[in-house]
Amino acid sequence: MYEWDFSSVWEYRDLLLNGLGLTVMLAVAVVIAGMILGTINAIGSLSRHFAFRAISISMIELFRCTPLLVALIWFYYALPILIGVEISAMMAAFLSISLYGASFYSEIIRAGIQGIDPGQREAGEAIGLMPGQILHRVILPQALRKMIPPLMNQSIINLKNTSLVSVLAIPDLLYQGKLIAHENFRPLEVYTTVALLYFAILFPLTMLVRHLESKHGVKH
Amino acid sequence: MIRIDAIEKRFDDLVVLRNITLRIEKGEVVALIGPSGSGKSTLLRCLNLLVPPDNGRLEIGKNRMVFGESSAKLKPKDLAVFRQKTGMVFQHFNLFPHMTVLDNVMEGPKTALKMDKIKARELAIAQLEKVGLSDKADMYPSSLSGGQKQRVAIARAIAMEPDVMLFDEATSALDPELVGEVLSVMKELANEGMTMIVVTHEMAFAREVANRVVFMRDGVVVEDGPAKQVIDNPQDDRTKAFLSHFHAES
To answer: Which residues cross the membrane (chain A) (predicted)?
Structure first.
């Protein structure tokens, strides 16, 4: 029978906390950047102009149809050859996860806007609102409410995806765990702790999504 | 005064409206009837430019629009100004679900006309009183019955003080017991002298409330005359055939 011993993990708590801090910071950064880019791409993909649509949809599909790990490695090892400039592992991670997240965010945003009953736009037009006013006063308030749960879901996936950056030797939570396990020969305790830390951050978030879904699901 | 001059509309190869010309006097109540696919709803939607006509001219009150070669260049601002003076009531109400009843009615005056908030509020409350729903001002549309929703939609449209009210099958989506309350609000509006164009299947309402009935089929006006005369004693065979369905039912 295996004897669990978490005391050796406790000794390395500072390392784990550092890793956790980096994971959370990177996640926040890629969520914000991803949402901004995703919004731009969503607007582009709904544009009347073919060029905007083409650019946005190509961006979305490029990252939707390649595995994140491949994108991550490509940005770190391949892109520098192409542009002749060294990029840090952190920058490669930030760019690839942001762009990857952005393509999923933009599909959520596009679907949210398109999912609003066309009668709502017509009602706005009928009382003489301008297109911008209709978007701002009628479409977006309704679309956002519907988008929030899936956007949060995607953000949760984004945070989990940051664990891939350990392949580029970025000292995130998983990478620190790997280091500790090499030193104390307690992989079972270390990786269990790492998993529990991810869980501890994400479980409250998924509960919040559940709550929001039940709240807004019934209303309309 | 409304002038509809040689309005034409096609969707790809399908010609929906052919050379529609009508004059409607101020205060007149016109019922637009006809089988589905006759173009009556499209004509109504052309009148407030939800569907911009391909050709022809429109004049409603002080606003004029000419369509044709130049209609590709219709400016959003011009469309918005034109629509502010044409109230529209939809079959499916299309209330804004994220706004209270009062906010629904205030939205046009406040956002489109940039009216002062307090004034817009007073105006909106007055319109809600007119449709008998001032006690529902703070509720959300989802908690109203269909008939109440449609009355709020009417209040929202008249809050813009339009030159004409357009009703697009305003009672077709309602349970039968709720039709009456909406029709009586429409009747009151007519009695107050509002110019109204009503696309409807309610022949009794058309006969009683409208001054005039226009029968359309296949994108043309087939018959146009005083309401009682057209409904009780139609001249054209196509009008007779259409109305016989209703006489058979009732």
So the answer is: 20-43, 50-75, 81-102, 190-209
